Fold each of these.
Amino acid sequence: MEYLIIIIGAIFVNNIVLVQFLGICPFLGVSTKISTATGMSAAVMFVMTLATIVTYLAQTLILDPLHIEFMRTVTFILVIAALVQMVELIMKKVSPPLYQALGVFLPLITTNCAIMGVAILVIKKDFGLAESVVFAIATAIGFAIALIVFAGIREKLDLLDVPEAMKGAPIALITAGLLSLAFMGFSGMV
Amino acid sequence: MSNKLIVSLSPHEKGELSVEKVMWGVVIALMPSFAISVYTFGFDAIKVVLLSVVFCVGIEFLIQKFMLKSETTILDGSAAITGILLAFNVPSNIPWWQLLAGSVVAIGISKMAFGGLGKNPFNPALVGRAFMLASFPVEMTTWPVPFSNIWSPATDAITAATPLGRLAEGGVKALGALTDPPVEAVDYIDIFIGKVGGSLGEISAAAILIGGLYMLYKKIITWHIPVFYLLSLAGFSGLLWIIDPSKYADPLFHLLAGGAMLGAWFMATDLVTSPMSVKGQIIFAVLGGLLCGAIRIYGSYPEGCSYSILIMNAFVPLIDKYSKPKRFGKEVNYG
């Protein structure tokens, strides 16, 4: 039950993009096609889960015992960036197909605030390791839903003659705003 | 001679249904609800509906004339429908300037910014309502008592809770206290014909049903979306009611109270923002009904209907993409 609340909360009620407004940059940047949006979502899920585990361990095994919690932001940035680069290198060597699928998206999300946000949120919420992993996966699913739905709308908008001044970024931002307005309906559910 | 031969693409024989006919048909279908709201809220109801229609049509006209510099299409009736539906979604004592703000968002941002009728991904009236609920939460949830100030405009009357508002605050036990004097059980007849507090157009399930059946008869809508939406809402709330009747309201109450009827018949069936194929429409309606029930029962808003439809509107392009009917002749199985 506890996990169910974490999952529903992370996917819908506190959707990372549409409610917390983290990770807006890939949300707007990689949402022109459903296929790229799906690839991006998979990459985010992969990195988010991995980064949350590693930063959680860094927090509990290094920062907490040494009482240097104020170093959290700096440490997490370094750890996440190094981790993603390493994963990219290993993946290129070990599993070329997976690298083909996720590779282009990995550098994009190395320094993404959604990844960083989840890593810090699980510390702030005092989650255990298992809860952190569930939270990270659920948040990534929420990100995927927002991104893919948004990509669907944008693919459709591409076929319509939207007014000249509104083409591209303006209408994308308006759509994102309306989507966020719709997601307000989930508020208070958990 | 050349005038007598017309070369054109098929179809050559066209039906009578046009955008205008459909839209004005919907307007006619909305009239019973309007009549009930005037009967219940008096002059205020007429004022709010008229203002809202004038705002919506006016804004569409101004935008088409001066910003898009295109033909004006205000006579097709779609802006008038948005105006009526927006008015149906607000309490009868809403200040006019808030209605104006809602209309600007509904028509200007969620419809004309996308290029006008047929291009908006979200139902304009619902976007207007969601915007107003987020911006003016107090005014949007202060409902005048029915029959209290008929024909005397703009008095600040005492307010009445809506059935769903009671449910959200006090649970099932509070439902009996709806009527005056309070009785033990919910009076379903009252909710059905509309003798309760609420937004303008949502109070009477009966009037909405008449309008809905008229639209079915005129073939403006098909039965799939409203029926599956209401069935799925009833199924979800019914399941919880069977598990614990002392905590959850019964499905009939959920069907009749609040905006479920209005939403299912008039907003979810919006031709622009609902899926194209029947399969897609069923997916859309079932998920929408579930969402509506979930938001009502678990969410912080007492009424989830408008949000459930908005959220499902967002999923329509995906549903359309993955529920395409098979091409004729494809995958023929010659047994």
Amino acid sequence: MSMKSLKIVTSKTLVLPAANIDTDQIIPARFLTVTTRDGLGKHAFNDWRYNDDGSETDHYLNSDEAKACEILVGGHNFGCGSSREHAPWSLTDYGVRVVISSEIADIFRTNAVKNGLLPIVIDKRAHQWLLDHPGEEITVDLENQEVRLPKNGGTFSFDVDAFSKHCLIEGVDEMGYLASQTNAIDAFEAKR
Amino acid sequence: MAKSLFDKVWERHVVTDETPSNPSVLYIDLHLIHEVTSPQAFTELGTRGLLVRRPDRTLATIDHSTPTLIDADGHRPYVTAQAEKQVETLFENVEKHGIKIHGWDSPNRGIVHVMGPEVGATQPGMTIVCGDSHTSTHGAFGALAFGIGTTQVGHVLATQCLLMRKPKSMLIQVEGELQPGVTAKDVILAIIAKIGVGGGTGHVLEYRGQCFDDMSMDERMTVCNMSIEAGARAGMIAPDQTTVEYLRGREMVPEGDALDALAQEWLSLRSDPGCDFDSIVTMNAAEISPMVTYGTHPGMAMPITGIVPAAADEAEEKALEYMHLKADAPIAGTKVDRVFIGSCTNSRLDDLRAAAKIMRGKKVVADVTAIVVPGSEQVKLDAEAEGLHDVFTSAGAEWREPGCSMCIAMNGDKAAPGELVVSTSNRNFAGRQGPGARTVLASPETAAAAAVTGFITDPRTLETAA
Ligand code: SF4
């Protein structure tokens, strides 16, 4: 699967400040009986966005403004819980390209980069600034590994695994690299 | 250099070592699959024209979307046609790729993390993955076992390998003996309450100390199962004689001299004295009480004898509101609507025996619905051979067909909005057991005590029939 290349994203931020937003909040399990990965954006944060009868709540996530945001800022320990890749699938389909938090759960982070979604763990101060300034336009520069905040908010660098960075910028997935290791895998199996 | 259990298992599976620009290629010994997280991976394989590299290292079952009831005509009523299609899709995929499945006709069909150890597919020193975060369960055998996403399921199907950098390590040392009536579930809830739901992020945990040495394999699986709830990739316990005896005689385990030789190797996996960990947490087993959760993540756990702690922040305040619980009030005595005994955390024979011990000779109170869902067909048969099902049904609890059931509530088994469920599962996230459902995580003993009293009750206060 080739992904959309991600170099620089400038967007207003969609801020969901609660700590420990788990994958059951991002997409509840009852939507996981699908056998494809498309069209899950309508279920992103389903139980926050819809009433029991299916009508929309007045949650900010339902606004056009929120839906236009490409950068999601979540509270500490974002994406904890299950390994369901439906979580990043639903977010990217909703329109998110970058997730920023002060901590992001391991499996969510791994799944995100495989779907062209950049997870950024940022310094606590910058994180607080972002939580305090919802809807500000910020720039995420993957090439230079920087988040640039407006209004003297400052510029903050972030770490990203070199391999994930390469895949995200080039819009390539990991299967190609793994397949190129076939000889090494054959040799490994042969010597056990 | 002194090496930890994790170091040893990791090193034995590195195909190519990591460099600054590339992660390691890690070989996977056992890939478990189920219906929910595999269909898109098989589709991807098809699109690329790839084959499954090692069908013999891949093992499937059905558990998440499967019904836990059989109607009078012998039909299993699926919650939706889509759920049924998901199960059918797995059958088609395994058939096409020559993968063994424990399906409807297998005595081991059941929750993937119950099935693997039960057939002896799970063995010490292995790398084990599954598109399910509670794959950490298999770490109880000294395997390096962790959950992966669907894209990675595709990677493992095609190459039997994963790209990964080596995680950090954390030692959880729990010395001393547990007090009577305190269980493995209480131990892991106490650990998560201490280190926090993100406390293990980026780490592989090793559980060590007398507390774990004393445990059965079923209990060790309960502990390792919830490693992910502390954010950890995996949790491991060094193999010992208890591990070897558990595996002896199981379908996929060699016999006789071959097992003896293997056992020697397994026992040598134990961490070397003086090996390094990135961090160390110590606890005293004697200080652990029966635990229950009071919030909307597993870290919000407290002794059942205690009072609900004040909210530390806005998120905790919201959690208490969601749970309809008040700070500074005792948690014991809270009214219960439903009880769920099951899930890959607590649905094995030991767990059912423990619940039955509390329920024997008592009745589930009139306004409480209690369901007991064994982890696999084999657990079900074993429990029935001991008459445990009679204990449950004569108490007025339902005895269901194996599966994930109300742990994840995607097969239609769920609580109504606002209902309070005492559950032996592993996640109390808002809505996990149905929209608006309020989950209190607890041991099988505490869940059974809630069923027969109608309130959150310390099981140690109940008389048990001989
Ligand atoms: S029982 Fe629950 S946690 Fe375990 S595999 Fe099933 S859904 Fe996941």
